[in-house]
Amino acid sequence: MLQIQIGAERTADAGDLLGRATLGWRPGMSEAEVWEVSRGIWKFNADRALSQDEVQIINTEGTVLAVAKITGISKHGDRYALEGDLLLGDPRVGRPTPSPHLSRNPVTYI
Q1: Strands (DSSP E) along 45-93, which ranges?
Q2: What does the pLDDT look like over 43-100, one tens digit per residue?
Q3: CA 22 → CA 15, 64, 73, 78, 107, distances in Å?
Q4: Are 90 and 47 in contact (CB under 8 A)?
Q5: DSSP 8-state assignment for residue 89
Q6: Which residues pair with 67 in a beta bridge?
C-alpha cells in the first residue's frame, strides 16, 4: 500500500497543475475532497507506486482520511499524480491507521 500524509489546509500555488485552489486537510472535508487535494503532485517512484493496489491518505495525527484503488498515474514534469477509484465509505476512514507513517517524506510504501 502507498500512504500519503497530508498536513493542514493551505492555499495552492498559482497555476497548480491539477487546478486545485487548496492543498491539505481541514476537519469536515469529505473523502472526495481529500482525494482531490491529496492525489498529487508528488515525487515518487512511478513503477513502485503502480505496483501498489491502494493508497491511504492520512493526516499528521495518523487518522485515515480516504482510501482509493490505484488505477494509474499522470506525469507532471518530474512529479506524478495518482489516478484511482475512491473507496467511499471504507471502514478504515476516520480510524487511526494500523501502519504509522514513519517516513519524513509525505509519500511512503507500506
Answers
A1: 54-59, 64-76, 79-86
A2: 999 999 999 999 999 999 999 999 999 999 999 999 999 999 999 999 999 999 999 8
A3: 12, 19, 21, 21, 19
A4: no
A5: T
A6: 56
User: Are 95 and 64 within 8 A, CB to CB?
Assistant: yes
- The set of cell numbers assigned to 53 is 493496489
Name residue 66's beta-bridge partners.
Answer: 57
| Residue 2 half-sphere exposure toward CB, CA atoms < 13 A | 30
Residue of 65, 86, 85 lying closest to 4 (CA atoms): 65
Find the DSSP H helices in the chain.
Answer: 31-38, 46-50
Q: State which amino acid sits at residue 97.
A: T
- Amino acid identity, position 5: Q
Sheet with 107-109: strands ordered across? 40-42, 79-86, 64-76, 54-59, 2-6, 107-109
